[in-house]
Specification:
Length: about 260
């Protein structure tokens, strides 16, 4: 196994024949390969336990593969942005700190000067629609607002890659739809690469420029789906015949992935 840098322009991340077996003997991934292209919105779709979150943790360097290779493209010359950042399913905010202080944490850890921290934190908070709540504490926020804070904290370091592990799974449908829309606006304005984990067909089709459908554990890439729906996605996209057709195609691919494991 290895984790190295490459100057290949085709993929910002390349995973080749990845296997992962944990100490308890559970094999999460076997023969998993994936290319992440710069600037795309890629969703990993699959049932719970198929290794989606393990893939994100490997990309982030939080866990190592048992076998296989992971390569990250070298950053462009002159760029000082963070390589990547992570948004987890739970916001994991510091309850004793304000919204501003929570978002500022990565920059303070990086020892940026207060003069540099303030405009970047203010910008990140404004981008997620919480400018009026910079002085609020997590206990004063709704679940959706807490997730916005988590996203602001992730983007304040200006990452080239944003990893998101089912960030909206615990939210009500109305809040989830709104955050889906806001996330797409952020993705386009920041020109960041997003790798998004979900087990929702409908969410993956709405958000993604490409979907990788995974088999049940041990996970592997079963199918790749790309749809020609342009961005920004229009307001009526969720109720369009095109969206319904894409959801059917994706559901069928997921059903076949499940069946391949049973076979």
């Amino acid at each position: 196994m290895s984790l190295s840098s490459t100057s290949a322009a085709s993929s910002t991340i390349a995973m080749r024949d990845i296997g992962k077996t944990f100490a308890n003997g559970v094999t999460a991934l076997a023969g998993f390969s994936l290319d992440v292209k710069e600037g795309e919105f890629l969703s990993l779709l699959g049932p719970s336990g198929c290794g989606k979150s393990t893939v994100l943790r490997m990309i982030a360097g939080l866990t190592a593969p048992t076998q296989g290779d992971i390569t990250h493209a070298a950053p462009q010359a002159g760029r000082e942005d963070r390589a990547l950042d992570f948004v987890f399913q739970e916001p994991t905010l510091m309850p004793w700190a304000t919204v501003y202080e929570n978002v500022a944490l990565p920059l303070k850890i990086a020892n940026l000067s207060p003069a540099d921290v303030r405009p970047r934190v203010d910008d990140a908070i404004a981008r997620v629609g919480l400018a009026a709540f910079a002085g609020a504490y997590p206990r004063e926020l709704s679940g959706g607002m807490k997730m916005r804070v988590s996203i602001a904290r992730a983007i304040v370091g200006r990452p080239r890659i944003l990893l998101m592990d089912e960030p909206f799974a615990a939210l009500d449908e109305i809040t989830r739809f709104k955050l889906n829309n806001d996330l797409l606006e952020l993705w386009q304005s920041l020109r960041v690469t997003v790798v998004f984990v979900t087990h929702s067909v409908f969410e993956s089709v709405y958000l993604s420029s490409r979907i990788v459908v995974m088999t049940p554990r041990p996970g592997r890439a079963f199918a790749e789906l790309s749809f020609d729906t342009p961005y920004p996605r229009p307001a009526g996209f969720r109720t369009s015949a095109n969206y319904a057709a894409n959801c059917r195609i994706t559901t069928e691919a997921l059903y076949n992935a499940m069946g391949s494991a049973a076979a």
